[in-house]
Amino acid sequence: MDPAQSPVVIGVRELVVGFGDHIVLDHLSLDVRRGEILGVVGASGGGKSVLLRTIIGLLPKRSGTIVVLGADRDTASFEAMRAIERRWGVLFQQGALFSSLTVRQNVEFPMREYLKLSQKLQTEVAMAKLGMVGINADDAEKYPAELSGGMTKRVALARALALDPEIVFLDEPTSGLDPISAGDFDTLIKTLQQTLGLTVFMVTHDLDSLFAVCDRVAALVDGKVIAEGPIAAMLACEHPWVKAYFQGKRARETTHAFNHPAS
Ligand SMILES: Nc1ncnc2c1ncn2[C@@H]1O[C@H](COP(=O)(O)OP(=O)(O)OP(=O)(O)O)[C@@H](O)[C@H]1O
Question: What positions does the domain ABC transporter occupy (predicted)?
């Protein structure tokens, strides 16, 4: 199904989030539709991570509504919200793996929290998830400190997929990776999204990622979404920030490659 026609799985309306007298999100509204990869871009410190963390309930909002998979945290019961939380996975910036747990134990962690599976089954599922993201079985007993940046991201992605989520939140998944590893990671995200039918909410600064994987992009400026749409619409957008971002010097090469794919 064309994601543009799919049901809304994340609906944010008039969201206000702030710290003291610093308003970060100022009556922000945004929809994410089932099956799409939405890229969220914006200036550094503009509130992209705050938006992600507020949607998943890690930060409080001042006002507005957030409905995820039909549940509104303001009105849903604790049990209902916990059941909904099982249906999403999160890859935090830097991976955020537990340093005292092995790769396998990190992936088992959400299962321990939410499911009652035998240890044997947990291990089988964790190993399957690690296989999906391209981590060798030989690396499963390593600790996070022994992993490269790319491997850390892959393990964090495996952990995000542990509970077979419908939505995956990715906070700068390719930051800190060299261009080839970042490109491989983009391909992995796209493949998983297509094979598992995931909805992906991805905060990124990486123009290559936006062009390679996103169905739609939302630009967050001054606490609001000032433009949203497919890449082609963003390239045609006249808003000064969007123009500078997508048509600036840094963007030109990527845009050129997008418009002139190698045959
Ligand atoms: N827990 C917090 N307490 C106080 N201020 C915070 C907190 N979390 C974020 N902020 C502030 O909110 C603003 C937005 O931060 P956020 O991390 O969302 O930016 P970002 O758009 O993700 O930036 P970057 O692209 O650099 O990661 C920043 O000014 C930041 O200092």
Answer: 10-247
